[in-house]
Design brief:
Blueprint (H helix, E strand, L loop, with lengths): L15 H7 L5 E4 L6 H4 L5 E5 L3 H12 L1 H14 L3 H13 L7 H13 L27 H10 L3 E4 L3 H5 L7 E4 L22 H16 L3 E7 L2 H6 L4 E10 L7 E11 L16
Parallel strand pairs: 1-2, 1-4, 2-3, 4-5
Antiparallel strand pairs: 5-7, 6-7
The chain binds S-adenosylmethionine (SAM).
Length: 284
Amino acid sequence: MNRSFLKWQGGKGTVIDEIKKHLPTGKRLIEPFVGAGNVFINTDYNEYILNDINPDLMGAYYYLKLNHISFMQRLAQLFIEGADQTGYLSSRKIFNSGRRCGKNFERAVLFVYLNRHCFNGVCRYNQQGDFNVPFGDSKKAYFPDSEMLSFAEKLTNASLCSTDFEEVIAIAKNGDVIYCDPPYLPASKTASFTTYHTKPFTTEDHQRLNAALIAAAERGASVVLSNSNTTETREIYPDFIFFEIDARRSSAAKAGSRKSVKELIGVLPRPHAVLLDQAGDRMI
Ligand SMILES: C[S@@+](CC[C@H](N)C(=O)[O-])C[C@H]1O[C@@H](n2cnc3c(N)ncnc32)[C@H](O)[C@@H]1O
């Protein structure tokens, strides 16, 4: 299995083989919620469209693709200058005082530096848009050079964007494959980690996603979706056929703690068909 150079909450590294069983062949894979790109780097499509609403994440991919050598050289410098907590806090301050949007090489490199040095790879911003995750542990952070090299090579076949998922799913046409890994519906009232960027991902967002995916399937795209193993998932995505899989998840709260949980992989039948009984009610 290939590993991403980023740490990411909800990263699909542990369940990649299960996901691949459900991904059909096709020319192009569209990932509206790419995160750390574990599915991207472990599949073999001719073309990719990668999107995430987090512009810092997509900025990092953009500059890595543009010139991976200068990106990695600058990152290596930051690893040396900011190896301890004092260095981390001063880099975080620079990151937060910089230009927030638009393309910016230094911000993109700082984002990867912060990702490798912050607590448990958590990506969290406050209401003002400041990255506010504390320093991770004091062990020397791992510099992911081989992971970045293979990621950069694979990016040559990828188009990148940073927008809401609906705009990207609208691009999908006949023959495309879409893999969606949105922030999950909470598995319980206490497990409600659904905010990756500044805005939480709501039930209405899941309903929007369901509608966008059904429309894409009607245009001839194949659709695969990951989500939590809950009644709510099955209710919000009623036309999907779901498969339960075992996932080993690390907890955001406790570094190093892992537990096995079930999650769902949903596949939308193509061409999209809903079985109705004689009265016109949905049968499944
Ligand atoms: C579960 S993570 C994806 C993990 C990824 N599959 C991996 O293996 O690393 C969900 C991603 O959705 C992104 N996201 C949240 N809201 C979004 C939206 N409205 N449109 C697009 N991406 C969004 C988050 O920034 C986050 O990176």
